[in-house]
Amino acid sequence: MNILITGANGQLGNEMRILSAEHPQHTYIFSDVIVPEDSPVTIHPLDITDGEAVSSFVREQNIDLIVNCAAYTNVDKAEDDEATALKINADAVSNLGRTGAKIIHVSTDYVFSGEACVPYREDDPVAPNTAYGRTKYAGEKALLAVCPDAIIIRTAWLYSEFGKNFVKTMIQLGKSKTELGVVYDQIGSPTYALDLAEVIFAAIEAPEWHAGIYHFTNEGVCSWYDFTIAIHQMYNTMAADSYDDAITCNVRPIRSEEYAYRTPRPHYSVLDKAKIKNTFGIAIEHWADALTTCMLNLCSDL
């Protein structure tokens, strides 16, 4: 197949690029709205909010399957500019769905209210309470309206070696601050982008195409506070050559109301993954094991 990976410069797009080498039976075309000069592969400039440009590109490249890794993910900025977020998270997704190619699209836990106390199943009622969540849910609806056999994978707490994310930020803050407050009353499951990329390839390589909505994160649950403690402990084990190099920042557990969020965050983001495990016959790593892999890669580059 000819497979288009949109959002190729992002966390997931980069992991898809790396894993594509393990699936050489396919031809991969990478695209993004901005093309970096130092990209290790050819990335085609493509604005997926431009419906005509998308249709022409897919036709010219003879695309069979699109993996949409592109999204507007800045939760706070989306509140100020919901129109732009909607254009990228919904209108662009509709453009991709109208091409006739098969689609695997990545969505988010933010489509739910975040007020549950048991893991969210795919068929649980959605209730987004942020602009970001509303636009991502609008994208799901728009895609299924024009491409009902699409695969949609909702995920949460994504991180990787690439781009800006919580893991890299906590390392930087841990090294630059003497004290850091991190919320302990928001619970979820971190997701290593490499593991998400692997499950996307599992869907691509499955003997049959299994359309529908799925949930994927790493196994286990934690708070942002727990996650930060694990990040700092792993950094000190893997990267610190001496006490002077170690992260000694005091991390304090704080409540959400003590942190100046401009936009409310979900208090509970745990997703039920039984459907994706049963459908594609996959085993999912615990978040601490996945974090160990990511930290080893990050620390080897320091």
Description of the structure:
It is a single chain. By secondary structure, the chain is an alpha/beta fold. The chain has a single domain (2-164, 188-221, 269-286), classed as NAD(P)-binding Rossmann-like Domain (Rossmann fold), CATH 3.40.50. Helices cover 39% and strands 17% of the residues. It has ten helices and 13 strands. It has helices at residues 11-20, 51-60, 75-80, 82-97, 131-146, 166-176, 193-205, 224-238, 274-280, 287-300, and strands at 2-6, 27-32, 43-45, 65-68, 102-108, 151-155, 158-159, 179-183, 187-188, 191-192, 212-215, 222-223, 250-254. The strands form four sheets. A seven-stranded parallel beta sheet has the order 3-2-1-4-5-6-11, sandwiched between helices. A two-stranded parallel sheet has the order 7-10. Helix 6 crosses helix 8 (224-238). The protein is globular. It starts with a strand and ends with a helix. 44% of the residues are buried.
List its salient traits.
two-stranded parallel sheet, alpha/beta, globular, seven-stranded parallel sheet, 39% helix, single chain, 302 residues, Rossmann fold, 10 helices
